Description:
By secondary structure, this protein is of the alpha/beta class. The chain has helices at 29-41, 64-76, 101-115, 134-146, 160-172, 191-204, 235-238, 244-260, 264-273, 288-296, 304-314, and strands spanning 3-5, 12-14, 17-19, 46-48, 83-88, 120-125, 150-156, 178-182, 207-210, 279-283. The strands form 2 sheets. The chain has an 8-stranded parallel β-barrel with strand order 3-4-5-6-7-8-9-10, surrounded by 4 helices. Strand 6 (120-125), helix 4 (134-146) and strand 7 form a beta-alpha-beta unit. The radius of gyration is 19 Å and the shape is globular. 47% of the residues are buried.
Amino acid sequence: MNYYKLGNTELKVSSIAFGGNVFGWTVQEKESFALLDEMFDKGLTFIDTANNYSHWVSGNAGGESESIIGKWFKKTKKRHEIILSTKVGGSMKDVERGLSREQIISGVDASLRRLQTDYIDLYFSHHDDLNTSLEETIQVYQELIKAGKVRYLGASNLSAMCIKESNSIAIGNGWQKYDVIQPLYNLFDRVQFEEEYIPLVEEENVAVMSYFALASGFLTGKYASIEDTYGIPRQEMLKHYFTERGLRILKSLKEVACKYNAPCSEVAIAWQLFQKNRIVPTVSATSLEQLTDLLHSVKLELTEEDIILLNQVSAV
Length: 316
């Protein structure tokens, strides 16, 4: 596993981050512990989650993922060997979406309790909040940093303009700014990151963690048609990928994967790792076999011809 410094932070992270959105959703506690054990044993020490995972599941309220991770920390005593990121601002059963002072203060304390830790390495604003001033949001984070509850700040799904203005406020006041962004990015979903966020990355010198690096599982290649998704938990998230362009991407992805006798998922993640702007893909697994494929992706050496082919076939 390769490690590198995450932007301007002091966080030394693994090449990929394990996405905790599956915990309490498609993977329950026992299986989650097995995945976390295997992940750690293989050198992957970066976990990403959110306070509202997985509130969308019937019977859940949000906080399930953090709770499972917290129990694993308590059981294994490995908290200080893990880089942990989580988020605030998303909606939960009894929590409104937003980034007000009150919502952030209550949100961080609830996350710390669930995670059974006293600090968060990287704390993300989850969504834009048009009803709260940018100064209020970025200022309250400074209090959390001063209190030792949070080390560094990130922005997930915030508009590039919002991030840029927030960072301007922070710098003007001598405060800590957003050092990491977490946009949607994969072979299919390229436009917003490449057109809106790359200029921000280069101007603001922020690090990038992508999410849905496998397009909710579409880029694993295991779904040949939309009919193959019927009845699975991610059906609604997958259906818009089955377009002429999506199937064209999948065809070329399978060709490259066949060349290396590797799963499509390895190639899709490796493609991100070979981009000009260094990216830490956030990827999830629901089985030990899937986790092994993800870990192998950091060792897959794609050629320039492979990258050109995948860039061209996925161009919009």
